[in-house]
Amino acid sequence: MxxxxxxEIKNVICGLCSDHCRVQVxxxxxxxxxxxxxxxxxxxxxxxxxxxxxxxxxxxxxxxLLDHPDRLNYPLKRISARGENKWQRVSWQEAxxxxxxxxxEIRDKYGAEAVAFTCDGENNCAEEYRARFQxxxxxxxxxxxxxICYGVALNVALAMIGGVVHxxxxxxxxxxxxxxxxxxxxxxxxxxxxxxxxxxxxMKLIVIDPRVSESxxxxxxxxxxxxxxxxxxxxxxxxxxINEGLYDKEFVDKWCLGFDRVVQRVQEYPxxxxxxxxxxxxxxxxxxxxxxAANKPGIVSHNMGLEQTPNATRGFQTRYILPAITxxxxxxxxxxxxxxxxxxxxxxxxxxxxxxSPEQEAKMIGSQDYPFYSSWATFHKLxxxxxxxxxxxxxxxxxAGYAHTPSVWxxxxxxxxxxxxxxxxEGTNPLLTLPNPKLVYxxxxxxxxxxxxxxxxxxxxxxxxxxxxxACYLEKxxxxxxxxxxxxxxxxxxIPPMYERKREYNIWRELALRLGQKxxxxxxxxxxxxxxxxxxxxxxxxxxAKRGGDNSPVEFKKYEKTGFGTPSGKVELTPSMLExxxxxxxxxxxxxxxxxxxxxxxxxxLILITGARNRHYxxxxxxxxxxxxxxxxxxxxxxxxxxxxxxxINDGDWxxxxxxxxxxxxxxxxxxxxxxxxxxxxxxxxxPEDSAEEPSLHGVWKSNINVLLDDGPEWCDPISGAWVxxxxxxxxxxxxx
Length: 737
Ligand code: SF4
What we know:
The protein has a seven-stranded mixed sheet with strand order 6-5-16-15-14-7-8. Strands 21-25-22-24-23-26 form a six-stranded mixed beta barrel. Strand 23 and strand 24 form a beta hairpin. By secondary structure, it is α/β, with parallel strands linked by helices.
């Protein structure tokens, strides 16, 4: 920390999106002036991070964010009906006493499982402490986004490969990158700059996307598929690789189980048949398969595109078969099996994922219907298998331990199979970010007790009984990583919390002390808690924040020493875990009952994809930050130019997008870069400038794309329970009003 006459430079981890950039924040006499990236050396990596931060609208808005007039500064208690936006300022003492006593009352009357949590957003919440509080409280019910955000992918990787294979570590050795449903140009900018450099140096790029995204525009091969058919496409590519003998026979013979069964299964997916399903010409499928197999090492990266489709689990199986049969696993420049930091006490050491009894864990909502994902038993099996090779436990809190979220809302409403009476919402906004928000609304209204912890009064907060003001990332320290990569980042607070804002850690701890968890919370502050986690490195939090974190060397071909972290010690192309749960262990493509081939498509002929990133926003955040909103003032939907002509719509017109669930308004962006039968609409839109009172709730129903989507069983992947965001049928017409 440099000190220059009243000016301090603090090393902070930006919490405004999941990139978690290590940044500097200039503070003058306790006032935050700006966030920037200090190029410490003129390395290309440092230059790229510099470009990421300086071109980031959110990063430039920090002084607006910190003391924005809409920020929550004091605990608020609801004093009239939910949704009327009438609040009374109360002291922390009063709020926490009352919240603790209500939670205890509900636990004593209905069981701990009657209290659920929902958490997800960024803003550096240090969620492992929420997980600790929740586990010690004794409820297995956490609702959130993990099913559609890495969770299922990681479970599949762990079941097949016995390790996390997810974050693409492309480097000069990488000869080919396959990007599935991802556009790093808008989502992960550092990766985008890396990708462009490597592409210019000769790396092959294959992009699978219905849109001509920035990434697709520079690809060697763009497979412009019908949304939701990714699994079929990947099965077609595997068919070509196997039938043309392009696989790595030596690796397959020595390390893979189930290859013969895969060979048989993919005969059902010849390129010509796959072309009919996906709309991608068969020759392009062959070309892509050959390019990937011939240019080794290669990496497959799937991000959210695959997660949010009707065959999500099957898609992940195919995605992991590709690197396994081509010998691209855990080699330099290939798909790396991530290993943990060897000594740092990462989040898994804090979250207490093993304190609940098996009986209590089994009460998790969804564990009967989706036992591959919403199940602590599955997590413990994965942990046991992988601990042998990782040497350390798995961290659950950001990929496992999630109840089936749509079922949680239904349980709140129906009281079946048991009552859920209370919800604690932390840093997330389910009325905007989950499908079927009218059902979410119904559930939120039905609750006996709802506490929301956030930095702004969101539409979800408006339906709470208490709203607690959280410190934003500038007002608290943060440590992240180490669980699934041998490095972690450490950042200090730029300033202490302003007004009466509190760090989430302190909220959980203070509730914990009131609820009999005292012995588990010896650390009075987050810094103290972090000091304990750094003890094995003989470093304090303060020292580590100056260094920014710690990196251990990355190792390759770890399986040669330990085998793979699966029950068999091999890559299970047909995962035994799926088979034991009664599922076909082989991947297959199934046409979605609600999709393009369903009768619904006659009335709703366009395919809606949602979730494509607007680079200025992170999900539903920042709509009230003027400098950010000025860059992107309206919700946008991309529609093919020929289609707009056919529909009598011009660029910039307001349009209605409609499904049987309802209709929402968007501004039309005409483009030739999307298939004619597809529309891509942004998510997360609400209007903080609109009235807070019901029915508006800050315009939550106007352009909330999730209003159009359902989350019933037919909308969920039958294995994982993940819901579909990228293949719904809709219709579009010009809005006259
Ligand atoms: S908001 Fe910008 S600066 Fe902050 S982590 Fe994300 S990309 Fe980095």
